[in-house]
């Protein structure tokens, strides 16, 4: 290596190899093409789907950015209704939405069934509004009452109302709900969300539910 200054009248730019120059040309050309594509921008608002939530069903909870899956299952743990919400959304407010979307076609003629015979759920769904709704629909309620609700009812005396009926033996069958979630999470893309859009993620849940039904009915 020489440290002498270059001759006068000549440039001191280092000489690049042929491969480097050719790659530089390719990158510049590709960059020009990509620039033209990037100028297109996102889809116009008039062409976006109305059923895609603005937050894409992604929210912040204790675990960070998460999505919560809500589902109604039958006695064998097979999904009947599936909904997705941001991770910080509560479970109890989604019960009415799940019941409204429930529709099971009959084998013969007649309208689809929209009312279950019984509903098993944990203490998070124990509210006076939910119990009144299920009574109006003639649904057998199998939901335990939390201790704080018991104390509040006892503190109010006769105004607190009668104790709620609870079948502890029937409540043992609620494990089908957790088993149903485990079957859904058998797919890696559902156990850990990788999709940006909520419609795509829910579509994977629906596809997994269809395969579970085909595996158990054939």
Overview of this protein structure:
With 218 residues, the chain is α+β, with helices and mostly antiparallel strands. It is built from eight helices and five strands, in the order αβββαβαβααααα. A three-stranded antiparallel beta sheet has the order 1-2-3, sandwiched between helices. A hairpin with a 5-residue loop joins strand 2 (64-73) and strand 3. The model is unreliable at 24-40 (pLDDT under 50).
Write the layout of secondary structure elements.
Layout: H1 18-38, E1 59-61, E2 64-73, E3 79-86, H2 94-100, E4 118-120, H3 128-136, E5 140-142, H4 147-155, H5 168-171, H6 175-184, H7 188-191, H8 198-217
Parallel strand pairs: 4-5
Antiparallel strand pairs: 1-2, 2-3
